[in-house]
Amino acid sequence: MFPIAAIAVFLPPPCRADGLPMAYLRTAGPAADPVTRLQWGLIAISLLVVVIVTGLVLLACLRRRRPRSGAARAADLPGEMPLEPDVGGTRWITVGVGISAVVLLGSVVWTLATLSAIAAPTAEPALTVELHARQFWWEARYPGTPKTPAFVTANEIHIPVGVPVAFTLIGDDVIHSFWVPRLGGKTDMIPGRINHAWLQADAPGVYRGQCAEFCGPQHARMGLRVIADAPAQFDAWRRAQARPTGAGANLPGQAVFRAHCARCHTVRGRSDADPDEHGPDLTHLMSRQTIAAGMLDNTPGRLAGWVSDAPALKPGARMPPMRLRPDELRAVVDYLTTLE
Fold first, then answer.
1. At what angle do helices 33-62 and 89-118 cross, to 10 degrees?
2. In angstroms, how far is CA 45 from the centroid of its own chain?
3. Residue 207: CA atoms inside 13 Å, Cβ hemisphere, count?
4. C-alpha span between 268 and 275 (Å, rounded)
5. Extents of the domains making up the chain
6. What is the biggest distance separating any 2 CA atoms in the chain, rounded to whole angstroms?
7. Which residues, other chains included, contact 304 with Cβ-Cβ below 8 Å and sequence gap of 6+?
8. For the segment 148-188, what is each residue's pLDDT rounded down to a tens digit?
């Protein structure tokens, strides 16, 4: 296991189809930095152990035994290994076991200290986001404030830079796992149980996340983005998301949306959606960078393909083919592209 971990140091970070790396050796927040330091330390220890053991094995292979006298050879019984007096080998074993014990004990203490450091933020979280995991997408529910009402979004989580953000994690169907490697470790999302996590981004940017527990045929494409904004930019985004949208109210596509999409999707609120089968809230759809849980860029062409036949693009997706006529498809895409 140690050599495999060491090899990982020299490999580039794996990349997703959306171009964002799932980097886990370079982190950007206090919920992940202690783990990264521990990881680099354990990799260094592993490499040192490999070098020492390899050197000792080579030394043993190249070391020549002292020649035995004829009388000693004659006393050996057939099929038995010759015995030699101890010339200091036991001392080497004692020293090796002692050094190994000290290193392992130090690693345990370091690991426990790291777990303690990331267990909870040192400051009060700036907000708490309720995150639901479903096959195969994410729903984020932001709480209301005295200035903004609560709202729901999907697959993209905005957080302010430089402050901790708490997450209430809920798995609604099967076991999922919330993981944004550059900002924090994995936390399972188990149906019937509420778990908690926290993240903090020390620099603005887009951080790739992923479901880290196999949850079905599209597990590998159940991604999300955590977008860290400057505080003023985050407040502006939050106000914009909390506002209802009146865009597209008189477009023909709105009637198509209500006839074919409103059972699972809604624009501001979920009153028309089946609580057991609802899909992402689409109120501010065009403010998102991607659709299909990070799989596709959010463009009218990609949106048309997704609306027309989602399972053809993402087999296993629960959104059924819409079977719309060409004019209905154009109308509903025109309507959706107004939802900014």
1. 170
2. 26
3. 29
4. 15
5. 2-62+86-118, 252-336
6. 109
7. 329, 330, 333
8. 899 999 999 999 999 999 999 999 999 999 999 999 999 99
